């Protein structure tokens, strides 16, 4: 019952859409290359690889709530890994056949930012391993309210930038 299937329905028009030049100015060079050009940060370099705090991981591009610390596990790969998205509709999955591999790309539905890939070798009951670039995420530590289950606090990401 726990498994939250991410949607594979493609979205052409993004809720958050900006000219490339604006993304380049607003993001760090690494975030820009990962989020906007689907590059991959070097393993074991991201600040959230070993983060075990409670909270939510939002898209570094648009602030959309993507993953909960409840879904995070230690994959040993060097990238933050989750067994499901916090909100299924928040991420979009696309076939990625680049680099001579068949992979499934994970994209932020709201801004189209590249987050990472999802693999079906996850160790939990969902079977999924969302392998996500640290730099494409912004961690938001849980507040006392959220720990009591009132986790929906709107989408402050719209005020970013
Ligand atoms: Fe986003």
Mean pLDDT across every amino acid position: 89
Sheet of most strands:
6 strands, antiparallel
**CATH uppermost class of the domain at 49-142:** Mainly Beta
Oligomer: single chain
The amount of beta strand, in percent, is: 15-25%
Provide a count of the helices.
3
Termini gap? 37 Å
**What small molecules does this complex bind?**
fe (iii) ion
CATH fold field value of the domain at 49-142: Metal Binding Protein, Guanine Nucleotide Exchange Factor, Chain A
Give unreliable regions as ranges.
150-161
The gross shape turns out to be globular
- Integer-rounded radius of gyration: 15 Å
Helix residue percentage: 10-25%
| Overall SS class | alpha+beta
Descriptive key words:
single chain; 161 residues; alpha+beta; Metal Binding Protein, Guanine Nucleotide Exchange Factor, Chain A; 3-stranded antiparallel β-sheet; 12% helix; globular; binds fe (iii) ion
Descriptive report:
This protein has helices at 20-26, 29-36, 144-147, and strands spanning 55-59, 65-68, 72-73, 81-82, 91-96, 103-108, 114-119, 129-132, 137-141. The protein has 161 residues and is of the alpha+beta class. It has a domain at 49-142: Peptide methionine sulfoxide reductase (Metal Binding Protein, Guanine Nucleotide Exchange Factor, Chain A, Beta Complex). It is globular. The site of fe (iii) ion has 8 residues, from loops.
Tell me briefly what this model is.
The protein has 161 residues and is α+β, with helices and mostly antiparallel strands. The chain is built from 3 helices and 9 strands; from the N terminus they run ααβββββββββα.
């Amino acid at each position: 019952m726990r498994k939250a299937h991410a949607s594979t329905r493609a979205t052409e028009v993004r809720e958050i859409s900006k000219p490339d030049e604006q993304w380049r100015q607003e993001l760090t060079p690494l975030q820009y290359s990962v989020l906007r050009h689907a590059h991959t940060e070097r393993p074991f370099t991201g600040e959230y690889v070993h983060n075990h705090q409670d909270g939510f991981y939002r898209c570094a591009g648009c602030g959309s709530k993507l993953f909960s610390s409840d879904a995070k596990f230690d994959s040993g790969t060097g990238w933050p890994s989750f067994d499901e998205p916090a909100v299924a509709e928040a991420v979009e999955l696309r076939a990625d056949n680049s680099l001579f591999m068949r992979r499934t790309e994970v994209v932020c539905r709201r801004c189209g930012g590249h987050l990472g890939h999802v693999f079906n070798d996850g160790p939990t009951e969902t079977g999924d391993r969302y392998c996500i670039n640290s730099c494409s995420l912004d961690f938001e530590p849980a507040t006392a309210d959220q720990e009591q289950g009132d986790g929906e606090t709107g989408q402050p990401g719209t005020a970013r930038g």
